[in-house]
Amino acid sequence: MMADSALGLLRPDTLDSQDGIGVINPADGGLIAHARLYDIGEITAMIEAADAARHGWAARTAKDRSDVLRAWYDLIVDHAEELALLMTLESGKPLAEARAEVKYGAAFIEWFSEEARRAYGEVIPSFATDKRVLTLRQPVGTCAAITPWNFPLAMITRKVAPALAAGCSIIVKPADATPLSALALETLAHRAGVPDTLFRVTPARNSPAAGDLFCTHPLVRKISFTGSTEVGKVIMAKAAGQVKRLSLELGGNAPFIVFDDADLDRAVAGALASRFRNAGQTCVCANRFLVQAGIHDAFVERLAAAVAQLRVDNGINASSTMGPLIDDRAVKRVSGLVARAIEEGAVRVGGSATAPEAGSFHAPVVLAGVTAEMAIASQEIFGPVAPVLRFEDEAEALRIANDTPFGLAAYIFTTDAARQWRMMEGLEYGMVGVNDGLISTEVAPFGGVKESGFGREGSSHGLADYMNVKYCLVGGL
Asked: Residue limits of the Aldehyde dehydrogenase domain (predicted)?
């Protein structure tokens, strides 16, 4: 009955029990529903319809677009519980986390409903008395987005909301594992007044072919992708043929650096929030813990004790504080990384929270004795494992932290204000959290550097990524 109420948000034509893809609950392997799949010909037609619709949408006043987005935000808030339940069923995350994601995702729509009114151009002091120099901000055009399964609602709203606010149209291909949250968002957007052809969600029968279509269709002017660096590089190469605008949020290897002078309680709380949220399946979660020698043993002891208290269970259960991984392949990969680290000399610390035997669960793990040379310190784990490395001084911490091709997020815990500034400036990352393990917010620019990608989501920068700057010279004055 609970599932039925959540599925009630979806239009009947987005479900197909005969020829659709089965969406599986990773907590118990149960079938939730069959989502309709779209062929390449159908997606092509949607791109063409979206491109035709964008001109009228862009011609509407900024206030009109703002009001529609605000109505979409209101509907999401009104249906927050159904959306959270749907997300928990298809992604496995605890219901409390799913509720938080609905609130977080909706905040992007609220933010960009307001930013739609602030897409300012500028008048530039002229170089000649009879000429005037100005700029206009105009929508990029028709956009495509490819979104991941780990945040099936928020990763869509922070791409779609700025696109619509800017005056663009957008087609979204959600992850095969979690299409239902995306389809529910589409339903609510259309109810709010977003034109039906302007924003479409298209679970694809052939996902690689759909990605190729986005990269090669001449009407698609921009692609926004959140996912692995490997796939991001493929998209970048294929989109280069038409010099498409890109926003890429790719893999990470976030360091979580704890200095001797850190507030230990705050550092442990930040570690739990950063590492074990969504069972460690977040692109910005701490991937390796660098702890200074003087506080190392105390930090490891407290972290292990806190991790042992986690309740690993089906996310639907109110007592659950950590859910399953997305599927059995993910469990096998994480288990393999842990086993290899132990073979290489790492030590599993403390008792562990137990995990159900059925479903795609992996118990949370704290590993001490990890070195920078181990695979677990260089690969994105994407699971509930906290590898702890010891360091001696600030220079060593910075060297280890930056010794990676990735540069998405980093975290530092220290009460020394001067050190905070040195580390913020010295860390080669797009985002740095100081004395806090949760950094994501709609008001700040989210994104990475190096092989973690480029482009920003959230803040005024997120709107700018969907707009072109046009320079105009007016002469003869």
From this structure: 19-471
Q: Give the pair of three-digit tokens for residue 125.
A: 């002091």
State which residues form the domain around 348. 254-438
Are 81 and 100 contacting, i.e. CB atoms less than 8 angstroms apart? no
Same domain, 319 and 359: yes
- What pLDDT digit, counting tens, does each position of 70-111 carry? 999 999 999 999 999 999 999 999 999 999 999 999 999 999
Residues 147 and 286 placed together within one structural domain of the fold: no
Q: What are phi and psi for residue 121, nearest 5 degrees? A: -90, -160
Active site residues: 249
Does residue 232 contact residue 248 with C-beta atoms inside 8 Å? yes
Are residue 362 and residue 418 in the same domain, yes or no?
yes
Residues 326 and 275 in one domain: yes
DSSP strand pairing (122-124 vs 31-35): unpaired
Cβ contact 37:20 at 8 Å? yes
Of 321, 67, 87, 294, residue with least CA distance to 185 = 87
In whole angstroms, give the CA distance from residue 193 to residue 179: 22
Pair 339, 316 in one domain: yes
H or E segment to which residue 191 belongs = helix 179-192
Kindly state whether residues 53 and 195 are assigned to the same domain: yes
The answer to whether residues 282 and 167 belong to one domain is no
The structure tokens listed for 222 are 């921009």
100: left (phi over 0), alpha (psi -120 to 50) or beta: alpha
Query: Which CATH number fits the domain that encloses residue 219?
Result: 3.40.605.10
Q: Whole-structure pTM over 0.70, yes or no?
A: yes
Q: Are 28 and 314 in contact (CB under 8 A)?
A: yes
Q: In this predicted model, what pLDDT tens digit does every residue of 319-352 receive, in sequence order?
A: 999 999 999 999 999 999 999 999 999 999 987 6
